[in-house]
Amino acid sequence: MKAHHVQTFNNQTLLFSLINVTLATTLMFGNMVRPGVYAAWQDPLPPRLRINNIPADRVVRFRSEQEHDHFRLLDHDGDFLLIGAKNMVYNVSAATLSVRRRLEWRPSESDVKMCRLKGKSEEACHNYIRVIAKKAHDRVLVCGTNAYKPKCRDYALLPTGKSSGHNSHTQRGASNGEFSLTEEKPGEGLCPYDPNHNSTFTFAAPLGYRTDGDLYVGTVGQFSGADPLIYRKPLRTEQFDLKHLNAPQFVSSMHLAGFVYFFFRESAVEYINCGKAVYSRVARVCTNDQGGPHKFKERFTSFLKARLNCSIPGDMPFYFNELQSTGPIVEGSYRGERARLIYSVMTTGSNSISGSAVCAFRLDDINAAFHGAFKGQEDKNSNWLPVINSKVPEPRPGQCVNNSKSLPDVTLNFITNHPLMDQAVPAYLGRPVVVHTGFSYRYTYIAVDPQVEAVSGKAYDVLFIGTDHGHVLKVVNVASLTQTSDSGQIAEPVVVEDVLVFAPTRISSSGSRAGEKSSGSTGSTNSAGAPIAITNLVVQRSPYEQKLIVVSNNEIQGVPLFHCQRAQSCVDCVRLQDPYCAWSLDERKCTHNWRRDRHSSVQSIEHGWDERCGVNFGATSEVLEELSHNAVDRDQTSSGTYSPTTPYGPLDESDTSGTAPRGSNISLTACLPCPSTPALDTAALYFARPHPNSGAIVDDSRGDAAADDLGLERNHNELDGSGSNTVIEATGPFLSSSRMYPAETLAISVTTSVVTSLVIGFIAGYIFARRCKNDIEMDTGPEDYTRYVDIQRMNGLMTPDLGMGAYGHELSYAVGGPRPINLVLNKNGKPTNHLSNPLPNANNTMQQMQLQMNNLAIHQQATLENKTTLQKVKKIYL
Length: 878
Fold this sequence. Notes:
Blueprint: H1 2-31, E1 49-51, E2 60-62, E3 72-76, E4 80-84, E5 88-93, E6 99-104, H2 109-117, E7 129-136, E8 139-144, E9 151-158, E10 170-172, E11 178-186, E12 200-203, E13 215-221, E14 227-232, E15 235-236, E16 249-256, E17 259-267, E18 278-286, E19 304-309, E20 311-312, E21 318-319, E22 322-334, E23 337-347, E24 355-362, H3 363-370, E25 375-377, E26 384-386, H4 409-417, E27 425-426, E28 434-437, E29 443-453, E30 459-467, E31 471-476, E32 494-500, E33 506-507, E34 513-514, E35 536-541, E36 546-551, E37 556-560, H5 570-575, E38 582-584, E39 589-591, E40 601-602, H6 621-628, E41 688-690, E42 697-699, H7 705-709, E43 726-728, H8 743-779, H9 786-794, E44 799-804, E45 809-814, E46 824-827, E47 830-833, H10 846-865, H11 869-877
Parallel strand pairs: 1-32, 19-27
Antiparallel strand pairs: 1-43, 2-37, 3-4, 4-5, 5-6, 7-8, 8-9, 9-11, 10-11, 12-13, 13-14, 14-15, 16-17, 17-18, 18-19, 20-21, 22-23, 23-24, 24-28, 25-26, 29-30, 30-31, 31-32, 33-34, 35-36, 36-37, 38-39, 38-40, 41-42, 44-45, 46-47
Helix pairs in contact: 1-8
């Protein structure tokens, strides 16, 4: 009985140990995401600064009187923005977002009636402007959907004071000058039928020399949208050929050095035998392509395309397959070499695990893919494989030639059947620049401010990333200059800011936007509203100011590129890691005008700390709580301020105490008053708690429920005097009421506890089992069969019952099973029945008793060899 309990205990101990191992492994691998190492589904990088509310005097905005405008930023030249909308074209000043001129173009009643007869909605049967291209300084090409009957018009801008009589084809601008219609023509192939179709266009000629033959467009033809094409009058791609274009969604296009590049996503024809997938593409055509002879006279002879590979590396790479946006070509120095990069926003599918990434593609890698092997398919049931070089004709298909009409048919037939390149274009540095995973939002658009100079003299690309929930992220590409950090890990980008630009709005039953503010600061939150996606971003620079133009479907805003003034201490300013901002030791403030005195400016883009700030890093959360209970009147302090988000007042340059190890990410929430620090403004102190998703300090005393719903924090001290919602995030271990530990400490603790529990569990089980075994051996002698028979009877088995009499053993059988057991002994080669032997009497000698016991032993051995139920009984006993 004891042995049975010992075995049960050992099984339970083993099961408990296995459970511990499983849980520990899950915790260990789930939390051992080292800083700087890209994981497939890591937590989003926290921003250094969250801004929920931008002061009204720092924001400019534009929206028209129409209920739904469907804005598209179609062209900008530095001073003006050309915006296409529903039935309208706006020429807007980039500095003030005020309308300089407007052009109204509505579809005719007959076109609207025909559109309605074809089954389209009333909202769709308007003229949505989708192409605005300047041919010269005084001439512009405008194309619109025109109620599902695309048309294009050429307009001329008349000088001031020169009017054409204000007829139906002349419209006065909002300021001086008039637009005069010079030509109207069909727009099929230049503009989509459906306003929801994504299209792109670009001119491949300098301003003033542009004609219709220089306009390259990627769009869809036909009313049903079943004819995608890349078009330049009179050439186009192959019609109804899935190898060329397969349900593409065009993103952008650009002209560079004799080529026009198109970026789009489409259904992958090379994956069609395995299912359906969407791949991102880059395609190019030669600007001097004149078409081919005979049947190729209206076809491009240089069209090639390749896949864009944006993925997290590994044994099984994770791909971001759907291209959403591309930035302009930027040129700079990256890791000691000059390169031209194109930053792109890539996402997973809409019905997939939500993920977004920004990848950079080098132009040399794109051209190398077009000079590589072709991909082809022998027949419809074959795999897509590289085409061997011996099958590629000469001259090589896809190259730019002086006279494409003289190309041989073998070259033209080959490029018609093999427009896809085998090699995909890899991401620069082999991985995404920044990755966001989660269901909260996706990236939608990107703008780049290239090669922004820092105090150290290094230049960094600053990325502005729009999201589908109205936020703009500012990211500094640190990895473009250094691959590894001081600790040997892969350098990760710096998310400087997360700014709420378009707050969610709710449409009321009357059609107006509820919760909308006509004045005041931007970014007020309406928790019941739908998020507003950002559709375009433009970095606007002028001699007087710098701003970011942010476009949504119904509103345009201009917001600052930087928010240096929100950091009021040296530590907070340096911790931003923003190349626009530096701490001035002379002026004792965080400023963007640091270039006037570079030597007295403190900044650290790669590390986020500088020893010249002179900060005591050993403060604890108890200090913060103690100071919060000893608040005094603000007027009693002479200078300096204090708050959980700005823990230090102005610091003296000579104070260099409390420096931190080089390469560490400093995260501070409180500091003991330093001797060289001015008096703290303890009136601004209050009890604070850590934000659940970051190391930021959240004010429990604020009454901003809307900001709390979004997880955004209000700066209690109103750093810029505007009452803006701000929080400076912690980037490393932060000090709070519950101390936090890094992932390495957690991994070591979990591993130690697992090993310890395994060792203790097995040792305890072994000792307990041995002790129970010894107790049984002490209680039962080698000749005592009474205990043995009791165990047999308890298990319900038919076993021999041996009782010890006065003169010897008496052999009997207890019927414990459903059938008798005929025990046959093989003695001297002859089978004998042990039951037939006579029982000993009282006069038997000790030798007879010994012989009987030997017979019993032989009987037991034979029974075990025959695998009877007695074997099971013996196992239980042992």
